[in-house]
Design a protein that fits this description.
The protein has 453 residues and is of the alpha/beta class. The chain is built from 19 helices and six strands. The structure holds ligand FO1. Ligand FO1 is lined by residues 29-30, 59-61, 64, 67, 71-72, 75, 121, 123, 258, 395-397.
Length: 453
């Protein structure tokens, strides 16, 4: 039996308390994986010290923002693999359905836990769920940052304004935190739990808005296969500056969003892979600095998905240009059905509708055109958030909100040359993309899809 203590800087005691007589419980939410999961490792460590069984619980909320059936299919696909993986380690898996703010307190109290461990997630829905659990329990509740390599609260105690000021704070600590994960033990204390009735679970989310079927396989195994593919064929060309289409996405974003693979494990694999240093550094910049900067935004900025969350200089410049003439103005139906005058924008929207994914450069273009052709910046941010949360597989994520505020509101960016509507917010015309040889093919590929039949 090997203990694997977790760095205390990952832990935040949400409530001290008196241990119950039951198991240690890990309430899994953001980090939906068995391996490389600091919250699960901490829960097992405490269970071993207390000589208690270990149970993992997940609460399925039938409505999570605008999430559509495709996101739930992806998430449930991953959770179906979590159950047997835990069973092999003699760790119970319980899945409850209902509003977590009421279902979890009721179900957790029944387990009379010695300790409840939850994973870190700065989104306001999760803050509310955790508050409800903390208010209802009498046992200790501890939050573990299992999503970030450098724990968000350690990386910075305040809202950061640019990658330039944040990067050194993260890089200084990487040596201590970018380490291999210990392995979970086979748990010595069993806990009887009925197997999950997955048909019931699928029925619970039937009411979610329909969407196109999944085009990628969910789960921890599929995530590692995608990482292998990316290492072999995409990493070398990553971040190729003069070719925005070559920004070969890793394809890992949905797996990272649902926590089916950890950014730390991906970083270790990429850092040690024989590829051009510039490509490795460009990828680690996105995976570590940009992602942790997004969690920093959502942790310290309550308006992380609206106009009030963008920097003062950007609010001022967008206000100065609020009355500028909009050459086009689209309502939400036109945006949603890719019915603008711009074939590149329509193609990007059709790709998101069809696959739930869109690669980096086009994502920025997609959001910036929503600013250019909406009546106000507030309406533009609301449209981009709604569409991204509804259709992107990796929507409803700090990374998405930071990306939208970067594109439309200059967040973590600086002032550029002034233009109508944008003011000093960085403009993107799409010419770099349009001049690429692959451009016509890209538009043709998505133009035939009958998405609205
Ligand atoms: N987390 C949960 O704990 N329970 C859910 O039912 C749930 C549904 C869900 C649906 C779509 C989606 O994109 C995320 C969802 N999440 C759910 C949250 C997810 O685990 C992530 O923690 C956050 O979205 C990212 O911070």
């Amino acid at each position: 039996m090997k203990f694997h203590p977790v760095d205390p800087r990952r832990l935040t005691v949400l409530r001290p308390g008196a241990p119950g007589n039951g198991p240690v419980v890990y309430w899994m939410s953001r980090d939906q994986r068995v391996s490389d999961n600091w919250a699960l490792l901490h829960a097992q460590n405490e269970a071993l010290k207390k000589g208690r069984p270990l149970a993992v619980v997940f609460c399925l909320s039938p409505r999570f923002g605008e999430a559509s059936l495709r996101q739930y299919d992806f998430m449930l696909g991953g959770l179906r693999a979590v159950e047997p993986a835990l069973k092999r380690l003699n760790i119970a898996f319980l899945l409850f359905t209902g509003d977590p703010a009421t279902t979890l307190p009721r179900e957790l109290k029944r387990l009379d836990p010695a300790l409840v461990v939850c994973d870190f997630d700065p989104l306001r829905e999760k803050v509310a769920w955790r508050a409800a659990v903390v208010a209802a329990m009498t046992c200790p509740v501890v939050e573990v940052d299992a999503h970030n390599i450098v724990p968000a609260r350690t990386a910075s105690p305040k809202k950061e304004y640019a990658a330039a000021t944040f990067r050194p704070k993260v890089n200084r600590l990487l040596a201590e935190f970018l380490v291999p994960f210990p392995k979970l033990n086979k748990h010595p204390h069993p806990f009887a739990a009925a197997p999950v009735d997955w048909d019931d679970i699928a029925a619970a989310v039937k009411a979610a808005p329909a969407g196109s079927p999944l085009t990628i396989t969910p789960g921890e195994k599929a995530a590692w296969k995608q990482l292998e593919r990316f290492l072999k064929s995409g990493l070398a060309r990553y971040g190729d500056r003069n070719d925005p289409t070559a920004d070969a996405t890793s394809g890992l974003s949905p797996y990272l969003h649902f926590g089916q693979i950890s950014a730390q494990a991906v970083s270790l694999a990429v850092r040690d892979y024989p590829a051009p240093t510039a490509a490795v550094e460009a990828f680690l910049e996105q995976l570590i600095v940009r992602r942790e900067l997004a969690d920093n935004l959502c942790l310290y900025e309550p308006h992380y998905d609206s106009f009030d969350g963008i920097p003062a200089w950007a609010q001022k410049t967008l206000n100065d240009h609020r009355a500028d003439k909009r050459l086009y103005h689209y309502d939400s139906a036109a945006w949603e059905t890719a019915a603008t005058h711009d074939d590149l924008w329509n193609t990007a929207q059709r790709e998101i509708l069809a696959t739930g994914a869109l690669h980096g450069y086009l994502r920025m273009y997609w959001a910036k055109k929503i600013l250019e052709w909406s009546a106000t910046p507030e309406e533009a941010i609301a449209t981009a958030v709604r569409l991204n949360d509804r259709y992107a597989l990796d929507g409803r994520d700090p990374n998405g909100y930071a990306g939208i505020l970067w594109s439309i509101g200059g967040l973590h960016d600086r002032p550029w040359f002034t233009r109508p509507v944008f003011g000093a917010v960085r403009f993107m015309g799409g010419t770099a993309f349009r001049n690429r040889p692959g451009m016509r093919g890209y538009i043709k590929k998505w133009s035939h899809l009958s998405l609205f039949s």
